[in-house]
Amino acid sequence: MGTLWRSQEMGRAKLFVPSEVSYEVVSALGDIGLVQFIDANPDLNAFQRKFVNEVRRCDEMERKLRFFESEIEKLKLEINGAEEAASMPAPDMKGMHSMEAEFDRLEREMKEINNNEQVLKKQNLELTELHEILNRTAMFFDEAESATAALSADTADSSNTPLLEADERSGQLAFVTGVIARERVPGFERLLWRACRGNVFLRRVPIDEPVHDPTTGDEIHKEVFIVFYQGEQLGNRVKKICEGYDATIYPCPNLPSKRRELREGVKTRILDLQNVLHRTEDHRRHVLSTIAFKLGGWIVQVKKIKAIFHTMNKFNVDGTRKSLIAEVWYPLARVDEIQHALRVGTSRAGSDMQAILNDIPHDSKPPTAYFTTKFTRGFQSIVDAYGVATYREVNPGPFTIITFPFLFAVMFGDLGHGFLMMLVALMLVLKEKSLKNFDGGEIWDTMFNGRYIILLMGLFSMYTGFVYNDIFSKALSFGSGWSISEEEIPMNITGSATLELRAPYLDLNGTLHNGDLRHAYAFGIDPMWQVSENKLTFTNSYKMKLSVILGVLQMLFGVVLSLFNHRFFKKSLRIWHEFIPQTLFLSCIFGYLVICILYKWSTPLDDFPNQSAPSLLIMLINMFLRFGLPPPKEQVLYGDKEGNLQGKVQMALVVIAVVCVPWMLLTRPLILRSRQKRREREAEARVRAGMLQGSDDDHDDGHGDEEHSFGEMMVHQAIHTIEFCLGCISNTASYLRLWALSLAHAQLSEVLWDMVLHNGFTSWYLLFCAFAVWAVLTIGVLLIMEGLSAFLHALRLHWVEFQNKFYDGNGYLFTPFHFERVLKGQDDDAA
Amino acid sequence: MVSLNFCGPKCSHCCFVLSIWGILMLVVLGALFKTNSRALRSDSSDNTVEDMHNIGQNCFIAAGLYGATLLISFWQMRLSRKAAQQRAELRTENSYSSY
């Protein structure tokens, strides 16, 4: 607890680093993560700094790595190496140069491969399309040929020469063949018809298999088309339209024999090309898989290098002594590790110029640093989420470790639910090594980081479940203290024994109509209450009183913690005129109530002065309303029968509590004012005596930063006093949420049992289904929803009711330069 | 081959946990009903010893059913694990095929 009780003592120092070792020194400091650098040139922008070129080089490297990453992701390869690189020190400057050169070479290689591949793919596409055209159009030609076979004559070998010359009526027919994307076909067809006034003849066939676009790699469905037309002019128009619709035109010979020849040629060329393509693809995969093997490590290393230069940009440059100077915050307790890191850094650079850490005086507020473990981290972050502790003030963190799960459990008390919650957390804790790198989104991270909190919440809920004797809304019995006779149960007509039908009515006095109390139950609430008629009356009273006791104790504890703060910061005025009246006020009213509750619990009814148990709430109200009078007869809790003793005690308590209010409100400001006046008088006297020097070295404690005007001080104190006095009442009432949520939880689990599982008991198949529904609802509603709400209320009780008694929370967090933080993306400047 | 893996890895794990919970809890409940536990008497419709025994019987049968779902989900878990392994192997084969 020593390290969490107060934040670490921080030192402010100047760090002198010789330029030639600066990179290595900063790198070594980044490994240990104990030093927070203060920006020495906050008014310079990013481009005016010393290492802007190096940062830019890192950006360039990151760009290349991103390029590799995207290429690798396309092939769905695994990226390795991040783990090892994270634990290794950052590469030195030489390493950075060689990395740069390697990335450059690889990028060039990749680009070349990609270019080649694209060219090859384009060729492949053209050849496939031509092949398709030759295949598909053969059909049209065959039709035409068979029709005109008898009349056929030799035709010239040109795409523009007449094709179906034999048909004299059609005159000179020429044709264009090509390929067009399917979605463009309708428009193309329409325009062709309109532009050529129906004087062309279009035939088209879809290509079955989609082709791949060489640049984007998308799948495109295309169609082969052939357009027959007549005359040069029309031909030009058709070709223009084809161009406009992005259709690719391929020349197609007229003669069947030539076409057949071309087709064979194309086929062999496609085969060759595909061979080459496969080989380039293999080569590419090979290069990328070697990159993927190291890429994770490279990304980590570049991030580290970049973070180092970002940090070095925060240094001041001392030109004459050739060194860099930075101002840093560091925890004094760990100075040996920092010195060691400085030595490691210089030795890594191979230089004997030592870096020097030199403490300097300062008047700024140091950051708040804690050294947490994986167990305490979650609890500390609960406190930090409200406000980071002011430097060196008492940290509620260590107490939160116990009180937070405990207050949660008071609201969540159920043995079964606590056990399930504990099991889940236990799994997270036991498998934390393998689950650490599991990426499950924000909700998962929150749950995983809070695994120890959940574990303790589960364990404590099991404990309170035992106390409440509640397991899935049923009670465990290890021998109830009530004896209820079952012998008198009459037999019914069928001859089977009927069990006790009526729920027993239990009387706290130890009697009931068909049995009585033999002994107190060993631990927690007697299981007989679970089946009794007046269960709620009893548990409500019990839980309500319990929450008042817990609340008052926690608030009193908070006030006591403020004593430690006042003593530490040497504010003796605050101890005498704030802490003492606060403690008196709280204990005279609510401390008294707690004692009365405990007394009433432990007293049998017959031992009360008038054999009647008074209502404590009314007693508390009467303390003020019937001030000075003894309580009415039935309200006497202790002392004589007339209640004279009780009346006097209560009167005294009220007087003390009321006196505390002006004490808190007035004394401190008045004392401070009189001190100030005295100082002013003394200063005047000194001026008159001609002693002007040394007037401000007698700073007294207790008011250091509060030398404001009297009015301001008064207002401040009034607010503080009113807040405390009203807070005592409203906060005590606020702790009743412990009872309210506990009641809600118990009732909800009972309802769930009665509405779902209870109905399933009639037959086995219903039971099978009902159990599944009940189990899912138990997890969804009772564990998750109720758990969240209990968590929220426990959080509020800590933040508001507990911490406002002593916690200032005006500090700022120590953010050391640490590679771990950089890699997790927590360091905003270096990211 | 038609895959018999009708339940994914998440679903089968869920069913697995639910089955274990079901078996444990229903067996305990069944035993308690058989022994006429006072806490569970309100769950019997007519408060007779016979009825309590019947409910206990029901609990044991339902626990047996959960035993069956336990086996099924275990089988499904194995199937999906095997499938995942095969996929992983295929991927590594792909990425190292060039070596």
TrEMBL record, chain A:
Coiled-coil portions: 58-130
Pfam families, per database record: V_ATPase_I
A Gene Ontology term for the protein's cellular component: vacuolar proton-transporting V-type ATPase, V0 domain
InterPro entries named among the record's database cross-references: V-ATPase_116kDa_su, V-type_ATPase_116kDa_su_euka
Protein origin, superkingdom: Eukaryota
Tagged with keyword Coiled coil: yes
Entry GO MF terms: ATPase binding; proton-transporting ATPase activity, rotational mechanism
Role, per record: Essential component of the vacuolar proton pump (V-ATPase), a multimeric enzyme that catalyzes the translocation of protons across the membranes. Required for assembly and activity of the V-ATPase.
Protein name: V-type proton ATPase subunit a
Automatic annotation (TrEMBL), chain B:
Keyword terms of this UniProt record: Membrane, Transmembrane, Transmembrane helix
Topology relative to the membrane: Multi-pass membrane protein
Pfam families for this protein: V-ATPase_su_f
GO molecular function: RNA endonuclease activity
Subcellular locations according to the entry: Membrane
GO terms for cellular component: membrane
InterPro entries reported for this sequence: Ribonucl_Kappa (IPR056552), RNase_K (IPR026770)
Transmembrane region(s): 12-35, 55-75
Domain of life of the source: Eukaryota
Main location: membrane
PANTHER family: RIBONUCLEASE KAPPA
Name the UniProt record assigns to this protein: Uncharacterized protein
